[in-house]
Amino acid sequence: MIKELLSSLVLIICGAIWLSAIDRVNAKGKEKDWITLNNCQLVPNKANDGDSFHVRANDTEYLVRLYFVDAPETASIGPARLIEQAEYFGVSVPQVIEIGLDAKNFVDAKLSEPFTVVTRLAGGLGRSKVQRVYGFVRTKEGDLGEQLIANGLARIHGTTAAAPGGSTSADEREKLAQLENEAKRLQVGGWGMTGQTSNGIGPQSQASPDASRSIPVTRTSSSLAAARSPGDVKNSAKEKTPLGNIDINTATEKELTTVPGIGHVMAARIIAARPFRSADDLKRVSGIGEKKYAQIRPYFQ
To answer: Cβ(190)–Cβ(100) under 8 Å?
Structure first.
């Protein structure tokens, strides 16, 4: 009798283990299936930053974390991580926080219109009551992670995946590396801060890009991003913006952004730094170095 009971118990245990294994295989199989969430909307949340943000899709809220990229932190938390991020861009910790804030503003603007999230619903790390998942975010201008790298607002770092459509994770990393090299060459975003002093003034200073003046990312047959030179934007804007007409202390944000080289982020910094004794004091605004100052000063009274 005891032997029969033991045999039955062993069969029950083995069956339970087998069913558990089947469930894990099925769950893993489901995780491999890409799910496309269309017409997504950004949900305002104080925890949103440049690489993770709350998203609403089909009446469900998710916290989406981007694959492949890591935008700097937006506050002085996690000092070790901030130091690591600062070393990556070759800037100070206060400056890397500034890059993180620019990345957040950039993403807020890019996701102000409906967008698409492609995800496997793979759980992302972090503490949140909302389901946290990794994903690729597609805007009308292309992949959001690629746009962040192309504009010098994030580093290549973090969880990877073979991108939807067949390209491998190695292919995507190579593409991002090429975008990053171009961002370094153009000295945009964090790469434009390299060599600055802690107050933002330095030989290679350049304002971080914002959504209205960002470098576009387009897919080509070679999977490289075609970037329009900031000089092209500056030249076209100069034809429309008269010189010497803008009052540094009364100009609105809209008026300030008509100046080539000043986007919404930089305009906000200028407004926050008021009052000025004259437009010559623009040099004390974070992100305006000698090169940037020489470019924008002629437009002010």
So the answer is: no
> Residue 285: CA atoms inside 13 Å, Cβ hemisphere, count?
27
What is the CATH code of the structural domain delimited by 32-199+222-227?
2.40.50.90
Q: Which CATH number fits domain 229-301: 3.40.50.970, 2.40.128.110, 1.10.150.320, 1.10.10.60?
A: 1.10.150.320
d(CA 51, CA 261): 25
- pLDDT of residue 226 exceeding 50, the answer is no
User: What digits encode the pLDDT tens for the residues 2-52?
Assistant: 555 455 555 555 555 544 444 443 434 344 689 999 999 999 999 999 999
Q: Contact 191/150 with Cβ under 8 angstroms? A: no
Cα 13 to Cα 29: distance, rounded to the nearest angstrom:
24
Q: How far is residue 207's CA from residue 191's CA, in Å, rounded to a whole number?
A: 10
148: enclosing H helix or E strand: helix 144-150
Q: Which two tokens stand for residue 101?
A: 């804030």
Kindly report the pTM of this predicted structure: 0.61
Most distant CA atoms of the chain, gap in Å: 102
